[in-house]
Amino acid sequence: MDPVTDTTMSLEVSGLAYAYPDGHQALFGVDLSVARGERVALLGPNGAGKTTLVLHLNGILTAGAGSVTVAGLPVGKRHLAEIRRRVGIVFQDPDDQLFMPTVREDVAFGPAAAGMRGAELEACVKGALERVGMAEYAERPPHHLSFGQRRRVAVATVLAMEPEILVLDEPSSNLDPASRRELADILRGLDITVLMVTHDLPYALELCPRSVILSGGVIVADGRTQELLSDDAVMRAHRLELPFGFDPGSVRVET
C-alpha cells in the first residue's frame, strides 16, 4: 500500500548518507523536517553537501542510506514521476531551464508533457506567469528578456506544475537590486514550501525565518535565521560571512 500522505510536513529527511562513485562521502546522516508552507534557507560553505542534498529531493540522486519523503511519499523509483512534479527546482542559471522559442511554450512544456491540453493548459500557463509578473511577455523569446526576467520565467515553469516544494539554487545571484527585490516580493507571496540554497545571507534573512547550516555533510545548526547569523562562533566555524557592516540583529524580520 502507498503511504498516507502527510498533510503537515512537506519534507522529511532521515539519516541521509551518500557517497559518490569515486568514494567521496558527501552526506553523513542528514535529518531535516520542513513543514508545509515554511520558507527555509539552506546555508553552508562550498563543498558542504548542499547540492547533493537537493539532488536527493526529487530522485536525481538516490540515498545510499536513510530516507527522503515528500508529503509522505518516499523518494524512489516507484513514485518518481509524482515526486518530480512535487519538487520543483529552479537552477542558478535560468538558461539551463529555458529552451523553447517563447516564454509561453517554456511554461507550457511541463504541464503538456504531463498530459494537459487546450483551455486547461492555457489557463495554467497564464496563471503561472501572472504569479511571477510575466504574463505580458508570454510571446517573447526568452533570450530577449533580462536576466532577472528569465529567472522569473524559470520560476513560472516550476509553478506551472503546482509543486509541493519550490527549491531555489542561489536565487539572488547576478540580479540587480530592483530584480532582487522583485523576486523577493514574488517569493513572499507564494503559498508554497520554499527551500532556498544561498550564500546571500541578507537575502536568507529577508525571506526565510528559519535556516539550517550544512557543513561537512551534516546539519550543524537549525534555528531562526536572525539568531544563527548573529552567532559569531557558528559563522566563523562554518565559513559564513556577512557583508561588511551588516548587523542581522538590527533587521526587522517579518515571519
UniProtKB/TrEMBL annotation:
Keyword field contains Protein biosynthesis: no
GO molecular function terms listed in the Swiss-Prot or TrEMBL record: ATP binding
Chief localisation class: membrane
Subcellular location field: Cell membrane
Taxonomy, superkingdom: Bacteria
Domain ABC transporter: 11-241
Sorted UniProt keywords: ATP-binding, Cell membrane, Membrane, Nucleotide-binding, Translocase, Transport
Membrane topology recorded in Swiss-Prot or TrEMBL: Peripheral membrane protein
InterPro entries the record matches: AAA+_ATPase, ABC_transporter-like_ATP-bd, ABC_transporter-like_CS, ABC_transpr_CbiO/EcfA_su, Co_trans_ATP-bd, ECF_ABC_transporter_ATP-bd, P-loop_NTPase
NCBIfam families assigned: cbiO
Annotated family: Belongs to the ABC transporter superfamily.
Record-linked PANTHER family: ENERGY-COUPLING FACTOR TRANSPORTER ATP-BINDING PROTEIN ECFA1, HEAVY METAL TRANSPORTER
Functional note: Part of an ABC transporter complex. Responsible for energy coupling to the transport system. Probably part of an ABC transporter complex. Responsible for energy coupling to the transport system.
Name assigned to this protein: ABC transporter ATP-binding protein
Record lineage: Bacteria, Bacillati, Actinomycetota, Actinomycetes, Kitasatosporales
